[in-house]
Design a protein that fits this description.
Elements: E1 6-12, E2 18-23, H1 28-50, E3 60-67, E4 70-76, E5 82-88, H2 96-114, H3 124-130, H4 132-147
Antiparallel strand pairs: 1-2, 1-5, 3-4, 4-5
Helix pairs in contact: 2-4
Protein name: TRAPP complex subunit 2-like protein
Pfam families: Sedlin_N (PF04628)
GO cellular component, one term: cytoplasm
């Protein structure tokens, strides 16, 4: 059995409400640690977006922080939707281009889901979890990323 490179992925809306969470961890302690890492990453994203040094056209924010052997990366859309991933950095060589591609693919899948005329946006968390298109696209992206 191979270890997963991706430990955690979350999508947060403009108000920083977590609307989607994916994690490979089953134990409560690690899940709580990853949840805390997400909250800290959201704070870093706000700092970066408020900074005048960041190029305005760049959605990929890069490395947000490292906690033990877990690295967090971020992506923010022009509508302030945030995608955050956490990967094991001690066991795998992680290329910046691969992370950028993964984050962009997840954001595109999310955007396509929102653009579906049958998408129920009243309860975005439940609707995203129940969207067969989003789930199948997300797991396809995840599988292709884990395989290389």
């Amino acid at each position: 059995m191979t270890k997963s490179r991706l430990l955690f992925l979350s999508i947060a809306d403009v108000n920083d409400h977590i609307i989607f969470i994916y994690t490979k961890q089953n134990d409560k302690t690690t899940s709580e640690k990853l949840q805390l890492l997400t909250e800290l990453s959201l704070d870093v994203i706000h700092e970066m977006c408020d900074s005048t040094e960041r190029p305005i056209l760049e959605n990929y924010l890069g490395l947000l922080g490292v906690e033990d052997d877990i690295s967090a990366y971020g992506y923010v859309s022009n509508t302030q939707t945030k995608v955050i991933i956490a990967v094991r950095s001690s066991e795998f060589l992680v290329k910046d281009a691969d992370i950028k591609t993964l984050l962009k693919q997840v954001h595109v899948a999310y955007t396509h889901t929102l653009c579906n005329p049958f998408y129920n946006s009243r309860n975005e968390v439940a609707a995203l979890e129940q969207s067969s298109f989003f789930k199948s696209t997300f797991y396809q992206i995840l599988k292709s990323w884990q395989d290389h």
